[in-house]
Specification:
The complex is a heterodimer of chains A (about 375) and B (about 400). Chain A is α/β, with parallel strands linked by helices and about 375 residues long. Chain A has two domains: about 290 residues, 3-Layer(aba) Sandwich (Rossmann fold), CATH 3.40.50; about 70 residues, no CATH class. Helices cover about 35% and strands about 20% of the residues of chain A. Chain A has an eight-stranded mixed beta sheet, sandwiched between helices. The longest helix of chain A is centred in the middle third of the chain and has 18 residues. Chain B is globular. Chain B is of the alpha/beta class. Classes of the chains: A alpha/beta (about 375), B alpha/beta (about 400). Chains A and B meet through helix 8, helix 9, helix 10, helix 11 and helix 12 of A and helix 5, helix 6, helix 7, helix 9 and helix 10 of B.
Chain lengths: ~375, ~400
Amino acid sequence: MTAPSPTAHEPAARAAEPLLVVEDLKVHFPTSDGMVKAVDGLSYTVERGKTLGIVGESGSGKSVSSSAIMGLFHGTSAQVSGSIRLGGTDVLSLDESEMRKLRGRQVSMIFQDPLSSLHPYYTVGAQIVEAYRVHNDVSKKTARKRAVELLDRVGIPQPDVRVNDYPHQFSGGMRQRAMIAMGLANDPSMLIADEPTTALDVTVQAQILDLLQDLQREFESAIIMITHDLGVVAEMTDDTLVMYGGRAVEYGATREILSHPEMPYTWGLLTSVPDVTGDVDVPLVPIPGSPPSLLTPPPGCAFHPRCAYRDQVPGELCSTLSPDLERGGRGPGHLKRCHLPDPESIYQSTVLPLLTHAAPSGAGEDVNR
Amino acid sequence: MTQDVATAPEQDAAARPILTVEDLKMYFPVKSAGLIRRTVGHVQAVDGVSFQLAAGGSLGLVGESGCGKSTTGRLVTRLYEPTAGSIVFDGDDISKTPPRRLKPLRREIQMIFQDPYTSLNPRHTVGTIIGTPLRIHDIVPKDKVLGRVKELLEIVGLNPEHYNRFPNEFSGGQRQRIGIARALTLNPKLLVADEPVSALDVSIQAQVVNLLQEIQRDFGVAFLFIAHDLAIVRHFCPEIAVMYLGKIVEVGDRESIYDHAHHPYTQALLSAVPDVAQATVGGRRERIRLEGDVPSPVNPPSGCRFRTRCPLAQDICAAQEPPLLQIGPRHKVACHFPGRINQHPRKPLTAGMLGTDDHGTPDPGASPSEDLHSGPGYADTWLDLDNRTFGRA
């Protein structure tokens, strides 16, 4: 993982605010049926050189919140409010032309499906050259040199030849590498990877994750990793944000979230995936039902209709009062949105036996504490 | 580690095979551009695959994209006609059955598709989609179709009163349930599930996997489970075959494959799976790095197809194709250097059997073994790698 920054920089880093600060972000889409609250009051921060993982099912708002950072809702009917500060700049107050200067240079995005996010009519090289020349006043020749350099950096063999290839001539893994090369063309300080490895095979996925980590170490960029694969979150991220129905339901250090989660939705995510080393006789425990409608979200806690533990909360609290994002029991910075009075004991007694990957009994933890 | 006796009977070794596939090949022609489209080569999508599936059992097919696992599934359902090889289903070879005689077969073998959005006709109601197989095969009288449709909807956990709705009114997970109900309509003996959960959300995946397990338990359907998610396959299938570039490189029971993999590709594949338990340790898991991409199936490498990316490759790998050796009661591997991680032999184990020297050059003095071609299923004797002897059941 990323080495802690040298102590000399510590005081300065502490005084300054994190690279990315998202506060009370709301993205609402007016539709003929009413207001769709895709993101409703989301706050998080990402420090330079760190990785934040955002998990949640489709429709939980994880991609929408990141698109807002890229300023992709300019000129649409979406109503974006709150604040997004990137390196001190308030992204939401920028107009489109200012945003264009920021996009690609300060923050860039890697999309899930590299085939549909690369232009089929242009060579890979031409697309990287374009991305570079938007922000750098250089000749085509220099930009092309830079493109070859970038392709080489992301591990594409014979970059000087492949730079003239069209996207369809690349394999899936190579396309994703080319996307990463394009994203890195201007050394952005913030990289948003939206399901960067979901369409890839495991061995290629591992290569791409390695590459992202190497590049992060090299450029000290911050990464937001949107994924539904908890294994990827466990291996790649420092912090984890679990989203449900457009809001954060649990947020904190990845190590704590995945080993001592305190929110039933996070439990559900953990118990519904099998593990390559787990006990096959332990049945998978899915989260019943389906994701909530963002048009008419359930009253109270958005998760309560699917929650198996709502009976353990006194009264009708879950269905009437939306819980606040409060401090959880796992150290400072751990936040959860749940009414359950003693989640840790329920986790230990009920959830842990359901996890197919038997939790390592403390051995790994002690070493790292 | 070695107390595998308890889990072994999970797949009854003596169970009658419902499906036996032997030396199955599927070559797709590659045509040249232009007016006269001559065949300029073949994509060897599946090249000599043999396996056996017990009645009511389940076999997982795993591998990276392009390894031929989906093509194998489509061959078994006879959506393609194989180039060569045999597919024996329930005693009959169905590999050459002409299309017009396939109709009775469709009752026995059904398929669940990956994408629940494109595999359901958006203009048909759910009742029509599920009821059509009943009408085509004339199973129940017309006035009983609706009753059966409702029954099926109930089995897959949908509201039976929703038969009048259209697919777009359902979520992805519910649509996949409709696809499953359609596959179950004719009480098939074999279900080919091609990536049945990979298009679904994590929380929904478990619902569908549990449903498939229930169906298998209640109806005794055999499953050919095709997926690239190693954890899901491990959870679902007591027996797994790993494919690489059109060939099975390792096949065996769950324990053999996941705990004692002997093929470097299987080992690399398993080591690359990100692990949730890693959260407490931090950082990445140690893994075997594979260089490069999967080679083109039009022009596969000589000898062992994995050699171009294999950390163990030596001369013999280019010269000789490794035979699928049985190395355990239910474990076969196709490698010249089979062994546990970091315990691979230095010298090719197979040289003697193939009648070559250690570099793969034929040795005039040697006598190659006759019975290297191993068919589907498992033999009673095997090569015990740990003791360098022959094991016997």
